[in-house]
């Protein structure tokens, strides 16, 4: 009887080991609660859709392990540690929010686990990192694109900037826009600050209005951005506002109503309203319509989808699902077809891809085209 029990135990252990060997474990850490939950949830849905569309690689099932980083830096680091220690993942996807990515990146770097960032655009996310990559462009490029558009398309000669000084993304993007705008001949007439969580922006907006700028750059997240736009219109502001990719969320019209009409923002090379989609973008859009028939896809979902595709592509080229092999393959990524455009990794592990422009027209997000930064 003892021999029989021992044999059964051995068989179970061997079966479990075989099952584990047939499963490739990929972690996902995103803000599913807290300030950044809207963006994090959309990115998670994009990752999950990609996993449904491409559930296997190298003949093995891909299993996702999802942890909420709660829009908090400490929780972000803890989330990555949990994925590594408890879930034994070989690669990680995430995260929305540059500050969160910086916190999680330190943990992944120490453990030697490759990470594909979704929409964390601050240059510091990958600076000096061997294991952190990203599917998005970086803020110097985006800031230059916004400045180019303001001067070339809006004929702006003066600009004001409204900055969330408690957010690395906002501070970084504001700085890159300012330098590019001035380099191109523009003048910054006002720089006003606020803190994450503020709800009354009257004082800052009143000061900006007193300077009568041609244009206001607003590197905010969409929820606060919508509130700012509503208060600006209530005060009688008529100058155009432009934001960055963090404003690209379908909920901005719901939150901002008529106040967001005409609002512009930079984004990645995808929007469901765009013409002449690539085959990958069409496949994603059609799959999303079935996956989420009551909600439009957006660029965050697309970047979540792309992040999964880039890791799967790296595993396929590596020929094995081992962290160092995946890292090496990610570093060699070249012209991989993604929803947000052909994607290559440069020497600093940042994706090289186009910058798109979206405008709110008649209550709808409209993709107006691609801008090449000067």
Number of helices: 12
Helix content: 40-55%
Under the CATH scheme, the architecture of the largest domain is: 3-Layer(aba) Sandwich
Query: Sheet with the most strands?
Result: 7 strands, mixed
- Strands, total number: 15
- Overall residue-averaged pLDDT value: 93
Class per helix and strand makeup: alpha/beta
Q: Structurally, how many domains make up the residues?
A: 2
CATH topology of the largest domain: Rossmann fold
State the name of the first-level CATH class of the largest domain: Alpha Beta
The strands making up the biggest β-sheet line up spatially as 8-7-9-10-11-14-15
Mind sketching the topology for me?
Blueprint (H helix, E strand, L loop, with lengths): L1 H20 L1 E8 L6 H17 L2 E2 L2 E9 L4 H13 L5 E3 L4 H14 L3 E3 L14 E3 L4 H14 L5 E7 L3 H16 L3 E8 L7 H10 L4 E3 L3 H13 L6 E3 L7 H6 L7 E5 L10 H13 L7 H20 L4 H9 L12 E2 L5 E2 L2 E7 L2 E8 L3
Parallel strand pairs: 1-3, 1-4, 4-5, 5-6, 7-8, 7-9, 9-10, 10-11
Antiparallel strand pairs: 2-3, 11-14, 12-13, 14-15
Helix pairs in contact: 2-10, 2-11, 3-4, 5-6, 11-12
Feature tags:
374 residues; seven-stranded mixed sheet; disordered N terminus; 12 helices; Rossmann fold; 2 domains; six-stranded mixed sheet; 15 strands; alpha/beta
Describe it for me?
Helix 2 crosses helix 10 and helix 5 crosses helix 6. Helix content is 44%, strand content 20%. It contains 12 helices and 15 strands. The termini are far apart. The relative contact order is 0.14. The chain has a 7-stranded mixed sheet with strand order 8-7-9-10-11-14-15, with helices on both faces. A 6-stranded mixed sheet has the order 2-3-1-4-5-6. It is an alpha/beta fold. It has helices at residues 2-21, 37-53, 73-85, 98-111, 139-152, 168-183, 202-211, 222-234, 251-256, 279-291, 299-318, 323-331; strands at residues 23-30, 56-57, 60-68, 91-93, 115-117, 132-134, 158-164, 187-194, 216-218, 241-243, 264-268, 344-345, 351-352, 355-361, 364-371. The chain has 2 domains: 2-138 and 279-354, 3-Layer(aba) Sandwich (Rossmann fold), CATH 3.40.50; 140-272 and 356-371, Rossmann fold (3-Layer(aba) Sandwich), CATH 3.40.50.2300.
